[in-house]
Amino acid sequence: MRILMTLVLALILVPIGAGLMLGCVRLDTLRKVVVGAVTLAVFCGTLALAARPTPVDSGVVPFNHHWLNLGMLLVEIGMGLYVIVVGVRSRRPLIVALMLAQGGLMLWFELTQGPRLEAAHDLFVDNFSLIMALINGVVGGGICLYALGYMREYHEVAHRDVPDRRPLFFALLFIFMGAMFGLVFANNLMWLFLFWEITTLCSFLLIGYTQTPEARRNALRALVMNLAGGLAFALAIVWFHDNADSIELQTLITSKQSLALVPAALLCFAGITKSAQLPFSSWLLGAMVAPTPVSALLHSSTMVKAGVYLVLRMAPAVTGTTVGLMVALVGGVTFVIGSMAAITTSEAKRVLAWSTVANLGLIVLCGGIGTGEAVWAGMLLIVFHAVAKCLLFLCVGVVEHKLHSRDIEAMSGLIVNLPRVAVMMLVGMAGMFLAPFGMLISKWAVLKAVVDASPLLSVFIVFGSSATLFFWVKWMGKLLEVVEPQRRIEEKLALGESIALYGLSAATFLACLFFPLISSRFIEPYVLSVYGQTASLGQGNLLIMTIMMIFVLLFPLSFVWYGRGVKVVDAYLGGANVRGGVGFTGSAGQVQEVNLHNYYFRGLLDEAGLCRCGVIGCSIVLAVMAAAALV
Amino acid sequence: MAGIKQSPWILHYDASSCNGCDIETLACLTPVFDVERLGVINTGNPKHADIFLVTGAVNEQSKDVIRNLYRQMPEPKVVVAIGACAATGGVFRECYNISGGVDSVIPVDVFVPGCAARPEAIIDGVVRALAVLEERQRDTAAAAGSMDQVLYLRAQKSNAPQILALQKAAYQSEAGIYGDEGLPALQQTLEELEDEFDRRPNREASSLGARETRKDPEKDRDHVVFLKAVVNGRIIGAVRGYEVDDTAYLSRVIVHPYFQGMGIGRRLTEEIEKAFPGVKRFEIFTGHRNERNLRQFRKLGYQEFKTEPFTPAITWIYLQKERP
Amino acid sequence: MSSWIRLLIYLIAAPVVGGLLAGWDRRISARMQSRRGPPIFQPFYDVRKLWQKQSIVVRRSQNFYILFFLLLVIFTGALFFAGSDLLLVIFALTLAAIFFVLGAYKASSPYSFIGAERELILMMAYEPMILLTAIGMYMVTKSFYVHDIASHATLLVLALPGVFLGFLYTLEIKFRKSPFDLSSSHHAHQELVRGITTEFSGRALALVEIAHWYENVFLLGWVYLFFASSPLLGVAVSLLVFVLVILTDNVFARLKWQTALRSAWVVAAVLGFGNILVLSLLR
């Protein structure tokens, strides 16, 4: 067991250490070596951790507790002061107020309760944290490798006007990674809180990376909302300690509902802000100004997942209560609004951001329902979403550099221009919503769980998922259509980029093929340990899913008969084709270009209006939740 | 291989009709005549149609449209020209913008007379077109079934009508590239083609690009050699060439659209090269935007050596090859 | 009857029944317009002819999508008649439809593009109601499995009248009949030519037709499920529903896509969700 804890500590400290080191490295080659080595180490570490036979354990850290706590307090004070300075300099009184409230509360808490703040186990490892660690290590590692090549092109080709602050970038990326490991392994709520705040700060700094006015504005918005969540977190710790005399996460989950309800509600609130649920979604949309690796790592596959991680952890404490119902409502409304909003925009990263918000909403919905089946489904969603969405973000990053646009309309004919990236994007999209792939299995599981628990909530899923269908398929169609045979753009990828893209594409397939293994090895034991019973897919259904998978895998094989025995003619244009079918003769005899444009439901749906509805609706729901928790 | 008769899907196009024939055509679909009882569907889409019904004379606006629609129809297909205008240009024949009946642009199989043509006549025309369609389908199917038995033979003067029809069908894609009817291959009349069998064309006039004149004409080499590719008695490809001063001038490698891309054109070229055992070099030409032809010829060892503008839209590219 | 036999019967009989239904549809439509109409076997003649025609395409790979569309539609129906999970059936159906739509996108013609886009809108319109139908059936029978639902003792329609009506509404969309023939009209001379199928010809078009036959039989099978405890009534109602669909096809003009989408969602929310609300209140 000693080894396990050492491994966990190493996973937290090695990336943070590497991050601090990378902050001073200006040399590109050295950076490559360090990033590569640390990523490999983290990758192997997480795999080693996951491969251990009985991974459930909680452990004591072999350090002097007093000094450790003092050190953490200093880090916290340092971060707090930095945030206050930022707030003052940007003239945002809300930031200062939130930080002062939260910092003051924690400081007071530490100073008055200091000696009593002992946790029997500061760290613990169970199947859920293992899954999160795997995502963080494997997906996150991939993104760090990708970032090497991407950031070079970002500064040297695509965005010459942005000051090159790559040392800071990689430092933050790795510190974040370490903090994320800390977050999922922490049992001591004080530790959890510290790591939580570190991720908030990393996110803030990375969103503002380009230092443009827009980036700063969006970074500050993200900071405000996450600080609100942080305040709720701090309140939860103080409240829980006040009433239960414990600062352990495990105790919180297993204690009586009457005792745990208020802190659980507060933590759910923190989770909702972190995972950008309505009414707080705007920060995630704004966060898309950051370079793509940031969007992929923090804002789709790991940091926002920390929010839903917390909500799912709290699920046993809120299940069956009004608080739980309200959390589920927030998730449900976010799922529907997010999916519909994704229809209205043609900017690729924005679509991905909305889709992320929507899918996180689905996970929050599961957490709010809080039955074993629902939690099982929610955890599946976390895994599959992290892999597929990350792949999509990285592909969009590459496409943006090659096409100098991230407008979906500009991606017409990508299957010819950039065939490899286009295929990977298609794999990612298929992974997001198509039948045999993971996300759909998960959605199916969610639907079953919801229908069993409270059928009325299924209305969110049925409407939301049909909207999901629309925006993904039209995007796929855009990639596939070839209006005019164009020349291939040079598709050279940096080594790190290739590893990440191919790796994630393979992972999308593998996650689906090994779905039964993932479920039975990690997810079912966790659900079993918490709820005493577990859910799984029936054997017959697995068989059917396998058949479907074979169908989809057969599709590329059909290219063996690629267009044999067919005659190629121009598209039908009322017979007015000219110039090989890419143009037609207009009414006055002039040549018109063929131009295909997707539907965005302008005039029927409106992004701002949808947002407004969602914000108002979810704010009311949150108010009801607060009332229900207190009463 | 029956069945096409039971499901004739039509495409109706109004070239420049006064709408008299159009209304009569559509009247066929109304309850009085109800051609759907014969399985007829008015598809409005060349990709789905078997029978192309054209009304009205061909003018500058409709010429390219007719050609495009015809090209976009899958084989087997037939064309029915409905009414006097579609047959000959009718009363508009002498107009400045009228190039004549539908057969001035695409091969027509059935002409329905009348001004306006009566629905009964139109139905009758369609029924006749069905017979052509069925025969063509049988031919195509039989030919497609025995593509390993293509014969490459000398063509006779009696083959001229078939070769001309083939030429007009095959050159539709060429016309599609340039959007201009100035292609000599599409302008050629039967008399001119039959003439070619007797004596080689005047090279200056037909713009085949010769500089020297004959010095010592030998009688048996004077006329043009015609080769045809035959499957099941049906001509699906042809090529022609003649010899002057150790050079063989090849032209018009034509293959039926249905059989294009099966190597028949290449084989025809190789065969006709063999027909001139005495020459030292071969010369051939094609339009400058016909990438496919150029690629083919290069594959056969030809190299470009000069270009010559023909019309504003078309430039001929000349290719040559020395006998190895 | 074992599920394997049912499956086999479906695979063999569905295209025959579907084709005959299509022929019957054309004949009844003709009679409604005081015409004679084509022979009842006309759809088979059409498919036979299409099978012999040349395949022309705009983009070489477009026909593969159609092949997979057909395979997946057959797979969907096979799952359904083998008594499998209704939700899986829906997912397979969606996957099939997506292949169809992607094929039309691939063809890259303005007409098929807009047809594909509209087909997607229609999918978005009917998906909620179809899922709600499955959920409603689950709430009554406590199982998503078709064979459990089919062997339920009472008439499902009695507990699910709203869901049934909502399902009928989406059936109009699935049959691609007026007022919802936005994406691909059966009749020519419209602004979209043939919409989603514009660029498919020859065998690909024949495959589309056959896929529709399979699909229609599967959909009528689903209608039957509402009356499964009384087989005769079930068959009668399924056929009646088919006639009803033909009648609406001939009576109504086409709706705009906005109206189609909105109305389908309102129907799903009011009839479908309302029914489920009542059921869960009664529980």
Rg of chain A (CA only): 24 Å
Order of helices and strands of chain A: HHEHHEHHHHHHHHHHHHHHHHHHHEEEEH
- Taken in chain order, the helices and strands of chain B follow as EHEEEHEHEEHEHHHHHEEEHEHEE
Oligomer: heterotrimer
Q: How much beta of chain A, percentage-wise?
A: under 5%
- The span between the termini of chain A is 43 Å
Question: Which strand order do you get reading across the main beta sheet of chain A?
Answer: 4-5-6
Strand content of chain B: 15-25%
Widest sheet, order of strands of chain B: 8-9-10-11-12-14-13
Helix residue percentage of chain A: over 70%
What gross morphology of chain B would you assign? globular
Describe the structure.
The complex is a heterotrimer of chains A (631), B (324) and C (283). Chain A has 24 helices and six strands. Chain A has 631 residues and is mainly α. The longest helix of chain B has 27 residues. About 5% of the residues of chain B have low confidence. Chain B starts with 8 loop residues before the first strand and ends with a strand. Chain B has a seven-stranded mixed sheet. A five-stranded parallel sheet of chain B has the order 2-1-3-5-7, sandwiched between helices. Chain B is built from eleven helices and 14 strands. Chain C has one domain. Chain C is globular. In chain C, helix 1 packs across helix 9 and helix 3 packs parallel to helix 9. Chains in contact: A-B, A-C, B-C. Chains A and C meet through helix 19, helix 20, helix 23 and strand 3 of A and strand 1, helix 3, helix 4, helix 5 and helix 11 of C.
